[in-house]
Amino acid sequence: MSWWPFSKKKEDSRTFVQEFLEQSKVKTPGIRSIQQLSFVVLDTETTGLNPAKDHILSFGAVKIEEGKIRINSSLELYPESDREIGKSAEIHGITQRPETISQEEFSRTLLPYLGNSILVGQHIHFDKSMLEKITGIPSFPNPMIDTANFALRLEKGPQANWNHVNSKDYSLDQLCERYGIQTEDRHTASGDAFLTAQLFLKLLKIAQSKGIQTYGELIKS
Amino acid sequence: MANVIVKRVQEFLKRFPPFSFLKPSDLELVASQVEVQFLAKEEILFKKNEAARPHFYILKEGQIGLYDQNEIKDYCDEGDVFGVLALLGKRPYIYEAKVEVDSLVYSIPVSVFEEILEKNSKVALYFAAGFASGQVVVRQDLSTGQKARGVLKKDNQDHSLLIFSDPSQIQFSERVIHIDLNATVQEAAQKMASESVSSIVVCGENQIPLGIITDKDLRSKVVAQALPLNTKVDHVMSSPVITKKKDAGFSDLYLSMIKNRLHHLILTEDGSPNSPICGILSDHDVLLSMGNSPAVLIHALLNTEMVSEMKSIRDRAETMLKYYLENEVSMDFVASVLTEINDVIIQQAVKIAQNKLSEEFPQMKSIRFVFLCLGSEGREEQLLRTDLDNAILYEDVPKELEKIAADYFLQLGTEVVEILLACGFSPCPGEIMASNPKWNQPLSRWKKYFSDWILTPTPEALLRASIFYDFRPIAGFNGLSEELSLHVYENIQKKKGFLSYLGQNAFLSPPPLGFFKDFIVEKSQEHRDQFDIKARAMMPLTDLARLLILSYGVVGINNTFKRFEKLCELEPQNAQLFTQAGKAYEILMRMRALEGLENQNNGRYIRPENMGKLQRQLLKSTFAPISELQEIVRIRFQLDLLRS
User: What is the rounded distance in angstroms from the CA atom of residue A158 to the CA atom of residue A156?
Assistant: First the structure.
């Protein structure tokens, strides 16, 4: 951030996007140990399940650094949406939203926060599409880990195939129950992100016990 | 507004003290700084003696065991706060924390919490009341409560480290015993003997130090080599000498002793070997200045016969005691150390008194006697210098010596008691002391005392039981005390009914809690509205333990919590209750001692309204085993029959 008050005006959305994309060019060496990696565990609540049509209502995330969830890194954002609250919002119980910020402000806060961290989430690819849409970045460069997929591979081996399992067994609720994570008060973006982060810590521990120790091995799994 | 994640953490923390005492804004601040980690079974969170991390922990889920050298000390469950030393003392961990089942652990940065400690008196009290502790904090059961105490004050540092920055505490002898270069080894040895020192400095002109002769030199260079006594000192002295300036810093002086393996360091005016000597620092002086270790204090006591010095050493033991109590050192250890120190003081006092009287009573030298401690010191439980209870027991003497023996031992007892009073102990209000002729008697008389008490247990005799049955030999001839013990146990065996009377004792003080589950406080003017922790809580436990252990005829265990330990072995079916009772007793001892240290009194009266809620709860929790034990005793010794 600049102390120069006028530079902000000149900065267009491109600048922080450029900075973000620039950061991601630094590749993490495959031999870096898991303990040294930075993760952003995130979740979005949306107006619906179609990235093309729907919008983000809320975004929640928390960072994992040195194997620890850092609560002080938690981030909760409510971007403005021009769309009516849809079906999904009823599930999530979002009827009144706290103060919202513009989509531009959202992107401006989000991208430096993500940096070149590894993005982690339950069905992260859906969240990724939503974030790409709201930020206008065609493709997020960050490495990503889908906790559902990660759990499947840890449980059934690297060759596991979604066609052979009941995908319901890999919902966040089911996973949390299976891995002993208390899930009172679910269905806020932040709340789910926090649950996902705890789930991910446990999965990482299991991965490490199976010999997955480095970034390279983690991404491959 | 806090986001959902912070709120979740906040909601969890809020359920457990000390977080439950925080204002929402403070709690939010703490919650926002938490770090969450997941640990798998068998992982080690921290190791014993590892430097404290900048955060302490609360267990979110799972279980963590605290170990001391593979010995389990405690288990932490959900909501338990541990690793608190980091918060309070920044001292290394005293236990190893091992994950028993997969655990989610929240780390709370010390820096955030320190500010809160300063401004939130409830939280401070919570820690001060001893719930935060060595390692574990807060669970309502006794095993943790016992450990759940700790240090709050920041100024409480390790004194043995402090010393390095405080040279004012080192004392060295300015009067240096020295001898001329032309003297013989015999002259040197004579001078050393008459001054009772272990080294002598050999000086040239103007008191310039040339060498040093120590006990060891005389042993290995003179006697072992069979050198003639007129050998000149320069032949055997260690030379040249290493010297330092008198006002050099302590660490400088100490390091040069360590580096050069010196027991004695010579100090000169300008620090060079070419200037006159002005002092000598021995490793004994260094040891003393390192202060508060039991070994040092005992060593110092053994080497002094000056009462004023004995008192100041006992004062220092109190500082050490406070440090131990606040640092969750086990009560067993604390009590043993303090008992040892008290014992040494008494032994020295007896020695001083004997020497003083030896000329006047030469014929008494061969009469055997034993100095007995009664009551709490007899039970090895006297932490503070509370009332003295002691007695002298001497062997039966021929008729013609009776009068003079009575006179001698009374003088001896009086002398010892006076020395102990000068050392800061308080006199026994009931005059149960060796200075009272009644409790300064030959063996036959003592045997009769006990026989009478057992045969006709008058209320008065029963009241005395709590003092007299816990006698322990401190100085003199132990055999006499053993003979008396045997006599007592034989008599009790003969009259089993006595135990029932003794059992009544344990019921003399009413239960500590009243109708409304509140403390029974004193009504008397002086201690109005105070809780008598000794009479209401500790004495019943002492009495119960004594009664049960006497009923098994176990000799030689005087300590209340050791008695409960022994009872666990003897009655495995009640082991849990006895364990709880022993722990309750340790908690009470600690509470009373801390209270006493705080208020500079005997700690006996506690004001319940001044205690934190949690401390009150902990105190109350110690009562549970009392009433359960009373119930067992009531049935076992058929006390109801006696009452009706």
Answer: 7
